[in-house]
Amino acid sequence: MSEHERVNILMVDDQPSKLLSYEVILSELGETLIRANSGREALEHLLKTDIAVVLMDVSMPEIDGFELAELIRQHPRYQQTAIIFISAVHLTEVDQIKGYAHGAVDYISVPVIPDLLRAKVSVFAELYRKTRQLARLNIELEQRVAERTSDLQRANEELIVLNTELTRSNQELDDFAYIASHDLREPLRGIHNYSHFLMEDYGDKLDVEAMERLQTLVRLSQRMEALIDSLLHYSRLNRADSTLVEVNLTHILQDAMEMLKPRIDSDSVQIRCPQVLPCVRGDRAQLTEVMVNLLSNALKYNDKAEKWVEIGMREAAAPSEPPVFFVRDNGIGIAPEHNDKVFEIFRRLHPHDNFGGGMGVGLTVVKKIIEHHGGHVWVESAVGNGAAFYFTIGNK
Question: I need a labelling partner for 375 at 20 to 30 A (CA). Which of 131, 147, 214, 232 fits?
Fold first, then answer.
């Protein structure tokens, strides 16, 4: 029902002249006016038509106003319909209470004041219209909620299927990487060994160009073996069971520095750790590998005369968030457009032989381990101004 849609007003009286006067008074409201000359005729209209307001005489033959009001209220559709009594005689308080008990909402005495009658009928007609509008809106809202709920449920079911397929696909990919890298090692080792045999046994019979090609073949096989070893190690991260225990990150850092001590000493790198790192829950071996890879990168990609690496922690922004750890240096830095690419497997930003070589797997392993620990890793850097690798471990 729209705001301007007409509502039906039923006028009940056994005297046609009164019905005509009510119709003249109420015609200004712009509503649909229906006449009924008796209580029985009124009931017939009520069974066929939705009525907003019933305007009725108290004293009528056969079915008086009180009886008609009670019959109207018994119908489920008219539990809230406004019933206004018009009485030509003075009604006692007992009669008025009786009327209210039978469902009346108001009384109007004769002689009827036109403005008063219009005002009262208009209020109840508008209330009926607004109530119907609200009921319609509630139905539409319930339908929309049901549709959204159905769409959400369907989307969740599709997401579950996709996640299942993705998990299976990732598992198959991990299995393939593991099997392929494992099975490729043996024939590759054979190529490497036979190349050495050829150089040793037929070196005096081969010209310089042939020897150079064999040496290139050896280098390529060695590089391929290193790539396969890196791929095998990466695939094993998903297959290995992690032992999550309380570990001290300060001890983890000390272990990593001990492993890298020869390079630290030879390059005279200053290691700064201005604060004691806390304990976290994680796998000791994997977190040690994270620290070794981050420190190794910081040592490797540095061309400054005075090199330094700082390891520290930033306090969490909120009590519910974990602290942020960092490893930063004053090295060559990374262009911002490569900040995400450095975590891709086998991704190197420099020629293979520059800065000590490498397979481009270290940061990929770091990302995999940190995410396995429920954390996140990212880099902030600029070319020539060093790099800062940040990471979190789990939730606080």
Answer: 232
- Tell me the pLDDT tens digit for each residue of 365-385: 889 889 988 899 999 988 888
Q: What tokens does 219 get?
A: 């280098």
Q: Which of 331, 333, 263 is nearest to 292 (CA)?
A: 263
Question: How far is it, in rounded angstroms, from Cα 128 to Cα 139?
Answer: 17
Instruction: Report yes or no: 58 and 66 within 8 Å, Cβ to Cβ.
Output: yes
Peptide bond into 16 cis (omega under 30): no
Backbone angles phi, psi at 31, to 5 degrees: -95, 170
Q: What is the DSSP string of 220-233?
A: HHHHHHHHHHHHHH
Q: Is 36 helix (H, G, I), strand (E, B) or coil?
A: strand
Give dist(CA 248, CA 253) in Å, integer.
Answer: 9
Answer whether 323's CB lies under 8 Å from 316's CB: yes
Please give the structure tokens belonging to residue 291. Answer: 């620290």
Q: Which residue has the higher pLDDT, 237 or 48?
A: 48
Residue 281, number of CB atoms within 10 A of its CB: 13
User: What is the pairing mode between strands 324-329 and 387-391?
Assistant: antiparallel
pTM (2 d.p.): 0.49
156 vs 152: CA distance, rounded Å = 6
7-36 per-position pLDDT tens digit: 999 999 999 999 999 999 999 999 999 999
Predicted pLDDT of residue 238: 61
Which amino acid is present at 13? D
